[in-house]
Design goal:
Layout lengths: L12 E4 L2 E4 H5 L3 E6 L6 H12 L1 H6 L2 E7 L3 H15 L7 E3 L4 H5 L14 E6 L5 E7 L7 H16 L14 E2 L6 H7 L5 E4 L2 E4 L5
Parallel strand pairs: 3-4, 4-5
Antiparallel strand pairs: 1-2, 3-6, 6-7, 8-10, 9-10
Helix pairs in contact: 2-4
Bound molecules: benzoic acid.
């Protein structure tokens, strides 16, 4: 199944390092991050999971639950987590799905046969509280992802869902934001009391509304 932005993220039951999980029950009303990695006991994955664990407070601040996946056995996950905690100086508290039968990987298209016939690639989805898929990225096995970028996308999604704005290139929380083309400049001046800067009729900025 090929999942696209705006699709409903499919539910599943799975075995995980923290026991059996129903994906929707795990997410509840939170935002969610579901990410796959190629294999346990591999160096890049060790750094990715360790760093994600260190960001737990950041994810919690954004009302977001994290869940990882690879096609290894649950006992491997549990033993590898001890290594991650030791080497990355953290305490992994989120579940890692043991997708030995590849049921979830196939559901979410995490296996790209021309990259690897057996291992999952580095895919990551952001799922909103309505269970809609809002971000999909896929990286090769040899390139660790930038999880600070995932926080930045969460900030952008949560801001643009609440306020009628968009975020420009390399935007960081607190920077000026973009007024979408659907809003006239006259309307924008009423809607955004902090001010409107017109560079071109289609390129207009306003200070971030909620700061
Ligand atoms: C790693 O996580 O280090 C890794 C996994 C598969 C291929 C290359 C690197």
């Amino acid at each position: 199944m090929s999942i696209k932005l705006g699709d409903t993220a499919p539910n599943f039951q799975a075995v995980s390092s923290l026991g059996d999980i129903n994906f929707y029950d795990y997410l509840g009303d939170s935002w969610g991050i579901l990410f796959s990695h190629p294999a346990d006991y591999t160096p890049v994955c060790t750094t990715e999971l360790g760093y994600t664990s260190k960001l737990q407070a950041e994810f919690a601040e954004r009302g977001t639950k994290v869940i990882a996946l690879s096609v290894d056995e649950v006992e491997d996950h549990q033993n590898w987590i001890k290594d991650i905690n030791e080497t990355q100086d953290t305490h992994v508290a989120f579940p890692i799905i043991a997708d030995k039968d590849k049921k979830v990987s196939e559901l979410y298209d995490f296996i790209h046969p021309n990259a690897s016939a057996t291992a999952t690639v580095r895919s990551l989805l952001i799922i909103d509280p309505a269970k809609k898929v809002r971000l999909i990225i896929t990286y090769p096995a040899s390139t660790g992802r930038n999880f600070n970028e995932i926080l930045r996308v969460l900030d952008s999604l949560q801001l643009t869902d609440t306020h009628h704005v968009a975020t420009p290139v390399n935007w960081e929380y607190g920077d000026d934001v973009i007024i979408p083309p659907a809003i006239s400049t006259e309307e924008a001046r009423e809607k955004f009391p902090k001010g409107v800067t017109v560079i071109k009729p289609y390129l207009r900025y306003t200070p971030q509304p909620n700061t």
